[in-house]
Structure formats: C-alpha cells, structure tokens
Write a structure and sequence with these properties.
By secondary structure, the chain is of the alpha+beta class. The chain has two helices and five strands; from the N terminus they run H-E-E-E-E-E-H.
C-alpha cells in the first residue's frame, strides 16, 4: 500500500527533528561532562599544590610525557607551576600497575627540590572497606607521604612496616599500600633524574 506523500513528509520531518534533538542533547551532555571533569581535575591538582597565586592556571600547563617509570607505557600528563617565573611545583601523573584489583592512578605534587607536597589517588578499583582507604575521602592514609623525599628516606624505607619499611599499611591490606609506595618511590627517582627537563633553565 502506497504511503501518502504528506504522511511520508511528516515522518521525515519527525525523524529529522528527533536526530537534531539527540545531537543537541549529546553536545550539551558532552560539554557538561567535560566541565565537570576539568573541575574535578583542578580540585585534584589543588590538593597537591602549594597555595597560589601562580603565573598560569595549573590546568593550562599540561604537557604529555612518555615515562614508563611513572607506571604507564602511554603518555601521561605533567603539570609545571611557576610563581613570578620561578619553579614552584610539578605534578606527576603516576600509575601503580600492581594494585590488588588493577591500576591505581594518583597525582603526586613535588617541590622543585623533590620533596613531596602531597599525593592523591584519583582512580582505583580496590576492595571497599579494605584497600579503598587509600582514598582521602575514606582515610588520611595518603597524607603520610607529605614532605618525604629521596634524601630524607633511604631506599629501604619505601615499603610498609611489615616489609621493613617505615610506612603504615592498611588494616587487612598490604598489597594496595605497597603498590602505591613503590609507585611513588619510582616517580621520585624519575624526577631526580629528569628535574632539569621538567624545569628547564
């Protein structure tokens, strides 16, 4: 049975309007999600940076670097912050690939001399009630790294106390904290070797 021309035109218009509406919703959702992601990232950076002011918005200093020592074969973000054109801090994106349930991602803020400003876990899949105490929202475990450095700690110190180190473990969990400790130690070693590239003269 042949469809009347007017009915076909109406259906075509409805389909076009539906596609346009879906496209608009997708665009608005994408922009909203990107804005939320940027806000979340800025909060994470603020937690591992000294107080401002800064010469530039920390987000705008993002550069991608290839540094397998930071736990990923893929390029990872590096942020470098200056005040009055003098180096103030670097933020490394670090991956602990050997967490109990997979990769643990964190931001590590460093003073130019290599001392840790702060560390924050940004993504993980650790067991609720055990390994997830690495999250600052659940406990202050991650704050024990503040002001530590390679010069203040010998290599043997970078382990949980159970393994002869000086760092606290988590109740009922050893693999998760040890993965983070090892990842931070490796990141500090990388920074020590590449400081002049992070902050060129």
């Amino acid at each position: 049975m042949r469809m009347p021309a007017r009915t076909g035109l109406t259906l075509a218009c409805c389909a076009a309007l539906a596609i346009a509406a879906l496209s608009l919703v997708h665009q608005l959702t994408r922009e909203r999600l990107e804005a939320a992601r940027q806000q979340w990232l800025l909060q994470g950076l603020s937690a591992v940076l000294p107080d401002g002011p800064y010469d530039e918005d920390p987000l705008s200093t993002r550069q991608l670097i290839v540094a397998p020592e930071l736990g990923s074969e893929q390029p990872v973000p590096l942020y470098t912050v200056y005040r009055e054109q003098a180096p103030l801090a670097a933020v490394l994106s670090v991956v602990a690939p050997d967490g109990y349930n997979g990769d643990i991602r964190l931001l590590l803020g460093l003073h130019p001399d290599g001392r840790i400003i702060g560390a924050r876990v940004t993504e993980h899949r650790e067991t609720p009630g055990l390994g997830d105490d690495i999250d600052i929202a659940r406990s202050d475990w991650i704050t024990q790294f503040s002001d530590r450095s390679l010069t203040s700690e010998g290599d043997d110190a970078w382990a949980v106390e159970k393994f002869g180190g000086r760092y606290d473990a988590l109740t009922g969990a050893t693999i998760t904290p040890q993965a983070i400790i090892t990842a931070i130690h490796r990141a500090l070693q990388w920074y020590q070797q590449h400081r002049d590239e992070v902050f060129p003269s």
